[in-house]
Amino acid sequence: MLNSNLYGNQMTVKDLMEALDLTLFNSETSLDREIKGGYVSDLLSDVMGFAKEGEVWVTLQTHKNVAAIASLKELACVIIVKGGKFDDDTLRHAEEEGIPMLGTKLETFEIAGRIYQLLNAKP
Fold it and tell me: CATH number for the domain including 38?
């Protein structure tokens, strides 16, 4: 089991990328981070207040503060939805902090559901 959470499967960022065919926007640094859960929000203050270390953050936000908050909260990675792209400042900051920045064309609801299913699949 994952460390102190309800999920049944250990998964790394790399595992998640491969399982969901996610795009990696920065280097392959930190893809071995363990995923301990997920958090979905587009309000930065909400993520700052409630996201937990090791979670995947699913959002449509793309600016530099996304990388700063992901680093501050020690999140496993950030996934941008709907085919969005992170700006260069965001990617540069994420690279400095070792935060994998990923993307998908899927809507928030669908990618969140798929992540949940992967983390809760019966062995």
Answer: 3.40.1390.20
